[in-house]
Amino acid sequence: MAEDEFAELGADRTLLLVDDDAPFVSRLARAMEKRGFLPETAESVAAGKAAAMARPPAYAVVDLRLEDGNGLDVVEALRERRPDCRVVVLTGYGAIATAVAAVKIGATDYLSKPADANDITNALLARGEMLPPPPENPMSADRVRWEHIQRVYELCDRNVSETARRLNMHRRTLQRILAKRSPK
Question: Are residues 36 and 120 in the same domain?
Answer without folding.
Answer: yes
